């Protein structure tokens, strides 16, 4: 494992909203081909960490590197200089705040905790739009259909993706008319359409029953193989997490309290106190 | 809605044939009806209606398809109208038009081209002036969009509203008189009432056909854009900006494309309006015009191009023709000069619009388009899911 290249490197990331430090000095590493999970109680800052990694929020402090290159960096400056509550405020000196589409272009793609499909559009169109970033046409060539070969290729690729995720029969349905579990799959398919090398899944099994969760576990393992992607996921279903993760990071109140293999995490007293105990109770 | 390929091709053909039949009909009406006839009103409705249809569709591209709210349409139309007028005033009329100023721009595109190419040159010149009108409006949109489109979308409404008010004042400013003729109107430029086609000695009128043709071609272009990969990206931005950005769509860039394209066609609409009205005057392009166009979009259905066209035609027909009698003493055979006098039409009109908006929440068409009407009713998956 350790010989593998680093896919994603998060260094001392702090995200502060007003007086709330949602993510506090988070450092983590994801290596190529791994499935890494972030777990932790609600409000621990997991989604916020995703938002920083994918460029939705510029962090208050810290750096994110992707494929060995710094893609996001910030340090407490301006008004934040005085009100900064986190650590390592003097460690970074660059400001790099790309919009999310730039990071998607580099090969990151994500799903959302509260599904964000395009409501007025069909299943097919939802995936097809993710192919827009792969276009080579400009407004004129697209309007006059000089791009029809490319368009046909994209449509074929979308059909192929629909087959892989098992949504062929629903392709002409409105995305929001699908049952919950299928909407989650569609969101994953949409992310895959951008041809990512790193896939970030925010609670992909939320609201699923054990049967569906089992299917999803297999599905995630399968897409790692078929699409050759590295996966970082947030999840509360412990059977899923323990089953497919190579390594796990545990967040609590914005801080990293543990990381290690599933076995190590399950035996970690701190994690059991802060989180796993609670999950066991909730599942009874 | 997605259809398979043959269905899509069929839809395109249906739309194309409808448009062709409509154009042929308008061409014939242009010959059959004299402007002084009783039905002459129909020609005026077609002329103005097509201008407003183009204005409404171009607004819909932005407000309905991209979810950006701009209130500067009248301002972009003003730019288009003036650009068109200034560059088509013939040399010999220029000094009469610019009575109080020394005209700075002394260049009529149709006239210059007709010297070399005759009648075809005139037509080409009018076409070039129209495109120029669109480009000037588009350039202005780009300048406004540069700082504003990076901000939250509410700012666009404020900025464009401000722009429309300012541009109207600027164009009436006497210091700019040599270009804009100050607060005086521009006239004698290439106008629809003069458009004729001469074949073997018979003169055919084109005064309704040309504006309708301009609107039709422009709207067709907008339809092509909306149905392209860019149109899909616009809709994605409208439905969920965060998801669009996460899927690699550059928000600032695509909002700019939508805004500039919409303004280009607003400029063309403004130019065509000047062509139809035979005059261009800044004071006619008040914000009330923007609201009227917005109303046509809402009446027709936000997100439906067919709706915008129907909405504008009905709006213009009602306000210019069917309800005219309410202003002039006699309506539906009832003579009541005390009630039916100036302004009463607007009262009735407002009530009608209120009723339509109340009972057709989604507008006349909702999000449906022309070809959807020719198709057998299919089960709506959205409705199925709800029940
Ligand atoms: N945009 C925001 N503004 C203010 N506070 C936020 C924002 N986003 C997240 N937070 C806060 O950050 C904390 C962590 O939230 P989140 O990352 O969603 O947790 P998790 O995904 O682990 O459940 C919460 O206290 C939340 O209220
Ligand atoms: Mg979360």
Provide an overview of this structure.
- The complex is a heterodimer of chains A (284) and B (387).
- Chain A has 284 residues and is α/β, with parallel strands linked by helices.
- Chain A is built from eleven helices and ten strands.
- In chain A, the strands form two sheets. A six-stranded mixed sheet of chain A has the order 6-7-8-3-9-10, with helices on both faces.
- In chain A, a hairpin with a 2-residue loop joins strand 9 (247-252) and strand 10 (255-260).
- Chain B has a single domain, classed as Orthogonal Bundle (ABC transporter involved in vitamin B12 uptake, BtuC).
- In chain B, the strands form two sheets. In chain B, strands 1-2 form a two-stranded antiparallel sheet.
- With 387 residues, chain B is mostly helical.
- Residues 377-387 of chain B have low confidence and may be disordered.
- The longest helix of chain B is centred in the middle third of the chain and has 30 residues, at 119-148.
- Chain A binds chain B through residues 54, 56, 99-102, 104-105, 109-110, 112, 116-122, 124-125, 128-133, 135, 137, 139, 142-145, 147, 151, 154, 171-174, 176-177, 190-191, 193-194, and chain B through 1-3, 221, 224-225, 228-230, 232-233, 235-236, 239-240, 242-252, 257, 261, 303, 367, 381-382, 384-385.
- Magnesium ion binds at residues 46-47, 113 of chain A.
Count helical runs of chain A: 11
Question: Helical content of chain B, roughly?
Answer: 55-70%
State the order of secondary-structure elements of chain B, H for helix, E for strand.
Answer: HHHHHHHHEEHHHHHHEEHHH
Overall shape of chain A? globular
CATH fold-level assignment of chain B: ABC transporter involved in vitamin B12 uptake, BtuC
Shape of chain B: globular
Largest interface: A-B, 46 and 34 residues
DSSP summary: helix tally of chain B: 17
């Amino acid at each position: 494992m350790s010989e593998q290249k680093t896919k994603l490197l998060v260094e001392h990331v702090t995200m502060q909203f007003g007086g709330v430090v949602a993510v506090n000095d988070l450092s983590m590493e994801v290596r190529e081909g791994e499935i890494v999970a972030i777990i932790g109680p609600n409000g621990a800052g997991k989604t916020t960490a995703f938002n920083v990694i994918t460029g939705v929020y510029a962090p208050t402090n810290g750096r994110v590197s992707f494929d060995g290159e710094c893609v996001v960096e910030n340090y407490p400056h301006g008004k934040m200089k005085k009100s900064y509550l986190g650590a390592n405020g003097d460690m970074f000196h660059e400001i790099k705040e790309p919009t999310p589409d730039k990071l998607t272009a580099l090969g990151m793609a994500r799903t959302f905790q509260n599904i964000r499909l395009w409501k007025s559009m069909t299943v097919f169109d939802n995936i097809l739009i993710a192919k827009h970033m792969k276009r080579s046409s400009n407004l004129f060539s697209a309007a006059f259909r000089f791009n029809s070969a490319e368009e046909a290729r994209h449509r074929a690729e979308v059909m192929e993706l629909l087959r892989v995720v098992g949504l062929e029969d629903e392709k002409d349905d409105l995305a929001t008319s699908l049952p919950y579990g299928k909407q989650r799959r569609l969101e994953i398919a949409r992310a895959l359409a951008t041809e990512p090398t790193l896939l970030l899944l925010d609670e992909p099994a939320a609201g699923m029953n054990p049967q569906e969760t089992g299917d999803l576990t297999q599905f995630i393992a399968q897409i790692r193989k078929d699409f050759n992607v590295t996966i970082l996921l947030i999840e509360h279903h412990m059977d899923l997490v323990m089953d497919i993760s190579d390594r796990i990071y545990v967040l609590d109140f914005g801080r990293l309290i543990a990381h290690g293999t599933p076995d190590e995490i399950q035996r970690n007293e701190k994690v059991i106190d802060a989180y796993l105990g609670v999950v066991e109770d909730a599942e009874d | 809605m997605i259809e398979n390929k043959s269905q899509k091709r069929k839809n395109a053909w249906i739309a194309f044939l409808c448009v062709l039949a409509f154009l042929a009909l308008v061409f014939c009406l242009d010959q059959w009806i004299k402007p002084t006839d009783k039905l002459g009103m129909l020609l005026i409705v077609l002329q103005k209606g097509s201008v407003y249809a183009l204005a409404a569709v171009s607004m819909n591209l932005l407000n309905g398809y991209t979810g950006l709210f701009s209130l500067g349409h009248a301002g972009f139309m003003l730019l288009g109208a003036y650009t068109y007028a200034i560059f088509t005033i013939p040399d010999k009329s220029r000094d009469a038009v610019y009575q109080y100023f020394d005209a700075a721009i002394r260049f009529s595109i149709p006239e210059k081209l007709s010297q070399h190419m005759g009648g075809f040159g005139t037509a080409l010149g009018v076409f070039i002036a129209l495109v120029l009108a669109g480009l000037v409006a588009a350039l202005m949109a780009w300048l406004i969009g540069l700082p504003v489109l990076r901000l939250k979308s509410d700012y666009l409404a404020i900025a464009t509203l401000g722009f429309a008010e300012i541009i109207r004042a600027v164009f009436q400013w006497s210091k700019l008189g040599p270009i804009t003729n100050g607060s005086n109107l521009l006239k004698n430029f290439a106008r629809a009432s003069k458009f004729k086609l001469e074949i073997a000695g018979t003169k055919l009128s084109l005064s309704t056909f040309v504006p309708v043709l301009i609107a039709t071609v422009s709207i067709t272009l907008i339809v092509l854009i909306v149905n392209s990969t860019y149109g899909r990206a616009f809709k994605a931005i409208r439905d969920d900006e965060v998801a669009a950005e996460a899927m690699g769509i550059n928000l600032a860039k695509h909002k700019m494309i939508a805004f500039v394209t919409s303004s280009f066609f607003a400029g063309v609409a403004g130019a065509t309006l000047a062509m139809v009205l035979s005059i261009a005057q800044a004071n006619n392009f008040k914000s009330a015009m923007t609201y009227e166009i917005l109303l046509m979009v809402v009446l027709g259905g936000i997100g439906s191009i067919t709706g915008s066209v129907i909405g504008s035609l009905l709006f213009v027909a009602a306000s210019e023709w069917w309800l005219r009698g309410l202003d002039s003493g006699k309506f539906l055979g009832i003579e009541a000069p005390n009630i039916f006098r100036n302004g009463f039409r607007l009262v009735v009109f407002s009530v009608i619009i209120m009723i339509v908006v109340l009972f057709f929440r989604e507008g006349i068409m909702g999000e449906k388009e022309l070809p959807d009407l020719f198709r057998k009713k299919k089960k709506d998956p959205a409705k199925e899911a709800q029940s």
